[in-house]
Amino acid sequence: MTNQTIEADQPQIASPLKTPRAAALAGIVFSVLSIASLVLIHLSTPADPAKAGFWLHDPARRTAIAVALNLVPFAGIAFLWFLGVIRDRIGRHEDRFFATIFIGSGLLFVGMFFVAAGIEGGIITGESAKSFGSSAPGTLVLGRDVSSALINIYAVRMSAVFTLTTVTIARRTRIVARWLTYAGVAVALVLLIGTGISVWVELLFPAWILALSVDVLVAGRSAPITPAG
C-alpha cells in the first residue's frame, strides 16, 4: 500500500487551534526588543577585551546591561511566536526539508542568544557579589570572549541560515513582497561573511525580521497563497 493510499484513508481532522491575530506582531516585538538589547550592550561595554571589567564599575553601564539582558528572554519568546506565524502562513505548502532547517536554525539562534546573555548576566551577578574587581581579569575576558563568540560567530550565522531558508520558502510560496526576498539574500550573505567588519552587523537580522513582519501584518492572513510554478 502506498503512502498516498494510507494518507487518503486517514480521516482529516481539523485542528481546533487557530493562530491568534496578535501573534502577527511577534516579529515586530522580537525586532524592537533585540535591537534595543544589542544597542544597549554595545554602547555599555568596551570594544577592547582587555578592559572587560571597566564597565562593571560604572552604575549607569551596569544598569543599561541589566536592562538589555532582561529584554532578551522576551525577545526570544516573541521570536518563537514569529516562527509559528510564518509556519501558519505557509500552511499546506510547507516542505519538510526546508521546515526542518527553518525550525532548527531558529531554535539554535534563540538558544545561543540566551546562553550568551546568561554568561553576561553571570559576570554582573558574580562581580556584584564580590564588590566588583575581585575576580581575576582573565575570567572577565574569558566570559566576554565566550559571549561575544556565541553571538558574533555562531548565533549570527544561524540567523543567516534562518534568513536564507525563510527567503527560499517565501519565494516559492509568495507569502511576502519580492523585494524582501532580495533583501533577505543580501542580509544573509553579510551575516555569513561580514561579522568581522563591525559588531553592528548583528542588527541586520532583527531589522530584516521587522520589515518581514510588517509586510506579513499588512498583507493579512486572508490573502491566498499561490505556490510558484
Salient structural properties:
mainly alpha; elongated
Detailed description of the structure:
The chain is mostly helical. It has one domain. Helix content is 70%, strand content 0%. It is built from 7 helices and no strands. Helix 4 runs antiparallel to helix 5. It starts with a helix and ends in a 10-residue tail after the last helix. Mean pLDDT is 78; it is low at 1-17 and 221-229.
For the biggest sheet, the summary is:
none
Q: What is the total domain count? A: 1
DSSP summary, beta strand count = 0
The backbone outline, from C-alpha atoms, is elongated
**Are there runs of 5+ residues with pLDDT below 50, and where?**
1-17, 221-229
**Share of β-strand residues:** under 5%
**Class inferred from helices and paired strands:** mainly alpha
Give, in order, the helices and strands: HHHHHHH
- For the CA atoms, what is the radius of gyration? 21 Å
End-to-end Cα distance: 30 Å
The average pLDDT value, as a whole number, equals 78
Work out the helicity level.
over 70%
Number of helices: 7
Helix and strand arrangement:
Layout: H1 3-9, H2 26-44, H3 59-90, H4 96-129, H5 137-173, H6 178-193, H7 204-219
Helix pairs in contact: 2-3, 2-7, 3-4, 4-5, 5-6, 6-7
